[in-house]
Specification:
Layout (H helix, E strand, L loop, with lengths): L5 H13 L10 H6 L8 H23 L1 H7 L1 H14 L14 H7 L14 H17 L13 H5 L13 E7 L2 H8 L9 E8 L1 E2 L2 E2 L1
Antiparallel strand pairs: 1-2, 3-4
């Protein structure tokens, strides 16, 4: 067998590693044809170390982006959700910022069927993930910090003159089935959050002075 060139080897290694450890098999002739194994560590396990490390890094990023959901569900359940999500939708972006963009939709799509309606326990993970993703987006998006200050023209309003207002890109408006205000307060106080009450809730997530509220 002809040895592949360096660029081909790099492309092959990237494909195998980024496929994740869920794509690994116990007997892979392709890996053995390229990677040298030993009595202590087979070729498959050598590649598997890198693939597993890659998945663990992705899971670490998900834990950092969704700390409230992780605290509420517990480590084991959260890891199961993340593992399912990464298996169903492996990342295809150069930036880890996009990794959690579809997490809420995944949790909504995979919640137990039939759905028992809004505000029920199985709907909570998707709802909270949607809130935490909105917070991450608000933190990263263009905010009002660099905008020129301009006083609101109250006289123009009273006179009925046309006024144009716009919402900055750092604002996210959500309609959720749970009231997470006490959960957020508990996390800020470094307390274990309790399950939130089911309540029709409108939320505005915004950043001002580089703080997301």
């Amino acid at each position: 067998m002809n040895q592949p060139d360096l660029a081909s080897l790099q492309a092959w290694m990237q494909q195998r590693v980024t496929a994740g450890n869920w794509a690994a098999t116990a007997d892979d002739a392709e890996i053995r044809a390229i990677v040298v194994g030993s009595t202590n560590l087979s070729a498959e396990r050598r590649v598997g170390i890198y693939a597993t490390s890659y998945v663990m890094r992705l899971a670490e990023c998900m834990r950092a982006e969704f700390p409230i959901l992780r605290a509420l569900l517990g480590e084991q359940v959260f890891n199961l959700f993340v593992g399912g999500y990464l298996s169903a939708a492996p990342p295809d972006s150069y930036s880890l910022y996009h990794l959690g963009a579809g997490f809420a939709d995944y949790l909504e799509a995979t919640r137990p069927k039939p759905h028992t309606g809004p505000g029920t326990p199985e709907a909570l993970p998707a709802s909270l993930a949607r809130l935490e993703r909105a917070m991450a987006e608000a933190e990263r998006a263009e905010g009002v910090e660099a905008w020129p200050g301009r006083a609101f023209d109250l006289l123009a309003v009273l006179e009925g003159r046309e006024i144009r207002c716009r919402v900055p890109p750092s604002v996210r408006l959500l309609h959720l089935d749970f009231d997470f205000s006490e959960v957020l307060a508990a996390m800020r106080a470094e307390r274990q959050p309790k399950l939130p009450p089911a309540r029709n809730t409108l939320i505005a997530v915004a950043r001002n002075d580089y703080r997301v509220r």
